[in-house]
Amino acid sequence: MVDDVEKRWSNGGEGGQVARYLVAVIVSAALVAAVTGIWAARRSACAEAATTLCDTPAKAAVLFGPAVILLLGGLGAFARTYRQWRRGQNWPLWQGAGWFLFLLMTAYLAIGAGAAAR
């Protein structure tokens, strides 16, 4: 087992897995954002309104749909971090992926909440 303070470990191909995981989660969140945005724009309840996010269901779907995907992706990365740590394998890349996805989720919620408040 390698001491975490000594950074002599190599990632052994783990970086590619982390990158593919991040891309998959971010693309999934973007697809959910696109689908919920299209759904909100085509609703009959919002046909007469000047904005796409005209009522609470539209705002909630557009705001929380992608955020839930990013949250679940971050939790999945942290679960992988724990499994890697328990096996004595390299875990810092997965932990970084989890924090990155949580950061994206927080930024999306902050920006989206500002837009939905209008």
From TrEMBL:
<feature type="transmembrane region" description="Helical">
    <location>
        <begin position="60"/>
        <end position="79"/>
    </location>
</feature>
<feature type="transmembrane region" description="Helical">
    <location>
        <begin position="91"/>
        <end position="111"/>
    </location>
</feature>
<protein>
    <recommendedName>
        <fullName>Transmembrane protein</fullName>
    </recommendedName>
</protein>
<feature type="transmembrane region" description="Helical">
    <location>
        <begin position="21"/>
        <end position="40"/>
    </location>
</feature>
<keyword id="KW-0472">Membrane</keyword>
<keyword id="KW-0812">Transmembrane</keyword>
<keyword id="KW-1133">Transmembrane helix</keyword>
